[in-house]
Structure formats: C-alpha cells, structure tokens
TrEMBL record:
Pfam families: NHL (PF01436), SGL (PF08450). It comes from the Bacteria. One of its GO terms (biological process) is protein polyubiquitination. This is 6-bladed beta-propeller. The lineage of its organism: Bacteria, Pseudomonadati, Thermodesulfobacteriota, Desulfuromonadia, Geobacterales. GO terms for molecular function: ubiquitin protein ligase activity; zinc ion binding. Keywords: Repeat. Residues 143-247 form the SMP-30/Gluconolactonase/LRE-like region domain. InterPro entries: 6-blade_b-propeller_TolB-like, LDLR_classB_rpt, NHL_repeat, SGL, TRIM-NHL_E3_ligases. NHL repeats lie at residues 153-195, 201-242, 246-289, 296-336.
Length: 354
C-alpha cells in the first residue's frame, strides 16, 4: 500500500471502527438494574443484564491498604477504561480489554484479585484473543502488527511474520490451532499457525460470497466455524475452519435484521449469532439461517443501553461481554438457556422461527 493510500485509508479505518461523537464518560448511576431483561415482562427472559465494568474494582478486584496509601501519596489515579473496542475472556475467566483510547490492554483477573496492563509500544490496539498455551494476541491497526504476549511473564513480541496493512479482528481456533486476523485494508482474512507463519488467506475485495469490503471483527465457535463481520458489505459471512465459504446473511438498512454499522460478532452455546451495531446502539441476535430473533439495547448511558457498542465476546456460562465504547465500560449480560430455571421460553433454536 502506498504512503498516499495509507494517509487516505487510516482516517477511514478510524471512522469504520470508532465512528461516533466523542464525549465525557457518564457517571455510575444509582438504582437496582438487576431485573433488566429482554424481552420485557411478562414474557419470560432470554437475556438478562448482569453488571457493568468501568475499572478493576467493578470486576471484583479490590486494592490493598498499601496500594491505596501509595496512590494517596503519588496522586496516581484509578485506571479506568478509556475507549474499549475488543474484549476477550479466557477459560480462567480473566478479562482482556483492548483499549484504543488509552493505547493499552487491560487484564483483570477476578480469581487472583489482580489487575495489570500491557502498553508500551502499542499504538491502536483493536482486538485481543488467546491461545491454549497461555499467550494472548493483540492486533495493532496503527503499527500493522499482531503482537504476542506470554501471560507467564514474557514481553510483548511481534507475532506475524508476513506484513499486514491494517490488522483488526482476531480469533483463535482450538481445533486446528490457527490464529485468524482480519487485514481490513487488504480485504482479507490472514491465517497463521502458532509459530507466526502464514498458512493461507481468505477472500479479497468484492461483494460476492467469500469476498470482503473492509472485514473487521471475528469469532470462532465451538465447532471451529469462523464468523466475519464484512462491514461495508453490511453482512456476516461464515466459513469452515479451513476457510471454505458456508453462508452469509445481512443487508444494509435501518430495520430489524439489517445492519447500519455492524461490528462485533459472537456465538452462544446454542448457536445463536450476536452482532453489535454501532449506529443502532443495540445487539441483534440471529439464528443459524440469519433470521433475527431478538435485539437488546438502545442509545443511552444507563445499564442495558449503549453508545457505540463495538466488540463482543461470549464466554463460560453464556456470559456476554460487550465493549460499550463511548460509555467507557464493558457491560455484561447473560443468555438464559432452555434448561435455565429463570426461563421457560428460551430463544428459538437455530433454524427455527421466532
């Protein structure tokens, strides 16, 4: 890519990933929001609101006496989330947040009551994922590099051997142990083994099946299928673990089931597909055939509302983590399965109608 084209493209990438009106972060609000649910009563709930996370204390990590004393003397402020984009939660329930506003990655470990950050060298961290060797991977759209960081104490190292134009979305496939990277500027998904060697590429620019127009967010489900947010084609594309096209759904529009500014994509344990839309300020849920089943969220700063939702991740227990970018927080929801005692009317299974 030429220098001239890079200068033109980077503002477009910023608009694509973080477009919206910036503003000051809202304050925490009082009240009990634990009964927030979708659909609204009296319909049995399928999605419930759990909590919001603005800093490590919201994740259940408290400061010790000496840490508080040092901060009192040094004037060091609390490390709050700045402008989150990507979110990932591993099997140990550690929370990783790619914070493009602060140019770092937050690591919150509620089990060990620890909080750390990865910064120093990151310019525009967009996505974060992890492998089965206790490494995490960070895409940096500003440097064109995917970094690997060993959680056992290693340093930030370059992962990708081949050059990337603007890496954004990331996903790890535990079945073939490949790392998938959205190279948004080249309109391709680049696939690497864990040694950082490129194995193959998926797609190219276009509107046909298996082609992309600025792909961004990625997700790999339990079966190994790859989900791609094809942003400017206003659709989600689904591939096999080996990169073969399976299906697609979505269209541009402002009605239910269509996309205006699709971003994060994720899949729950029943195979329902969740897509964040930054213009709608909502998350839409689809079945495997692309039929919209439910949406939740609206514009605002209260619990259950969004201001530019970006990345999404679904972890253990069907907890749904949404990066609420301009509200400077994560919001956590829960999908209630068929056998959950709180609901007797779950979302239709994939392939069924509403």
């Amino acid at each position: 890519m030429s220098i001239k084209n890079s200068i033109i493209f980077f503002p477009l990438l910023v608009l694509l990933l973080l477009s919206g009106c910036a503003g000051s972060a809202p304050q925490r609000r009082g009240g009990d929001y634990r009964e927030l649910q979708w659909p609204a009563l009296p319909t049995p709930p399928r999605i419930t609101w759990v909590k919001e996370i603005r800093d490590f204390e919201d994740a259940g990590i408290s400061k010790g006496f000496w840490q508080r004393a040092i901060e009192l003397l040094t004037g060091e402020p609390d490390q709050r989330i700045g402008k989150p984009y990507g979110v990932y939660v591993d099997q140990k329930e550690r929370i990783f947040i790619a914070d493009v506003g602060l140019a770092l990655v937050h690591i919150m470990d509620p089990d060990k009551k620890s909080y750390t950050v990865i910064g120093g060298g990151l310019r525009t961290p967009i996505a974060v994922t992890g492998d089965d060797r206790d490494n995490i991977y960070i895409s940096d759209a500003g440097t064109g590099v995917v970094y690997r960081y060993a959680l056992s104490g290693g340093k930030l190292q370059r992962f990708n051997v081949t050059a990337l134009d603007r890496p954004t979305g990331l996903a790890f496939n535990a079945n073939n142990r490949f790392i998938y990277v959205s190279d948004t500027a080249s309109h391709q998904i680049v696939v690497y083994d864990l040694a950082g060697n490129e194995r193959y590429r998926i797609g190219g620019r276009g509107t046909g099946a298996g082609q992309f127009n600025y792909p961004t967010d990625l997700f790999v489900d339990a079966s190994g299928r790859l989900y791609v947010t094809d942003a400017l084609n206003s659709r989600i594309q689904i591939f096999t673990a080996n990169g073969h096209f399976l299906k697609q759904f979505g269209r541009a529009g402002d009605t239910s089931g269509s996309f205006a500014r699709p971003k994060g994509v994720a899949v729950d344990s029943d195979g329902h597909i969740y897509v964040c839309d930054a213009l709608f300020d909502a998350v839409q849920i689809f079945n495997d055939n692309g039929r919209v089943l439910l949406d939740f969220g609206s514009h605002g700063s209260n619990p259950g509302q969004f201001w530019m939702p970006a990345g999404i991740f679904i972890g253990k227990g069907d907890l749904i983590y949404v990066a609420d970018s301009y509200n400077r927080r994560l919001q956590v929801f829960r999908y209630l399965r068929v056998d959950d005692p709180q609901t007797g009317a779950p979302l239709p299974a994939p392939g069924e109608s509403k």
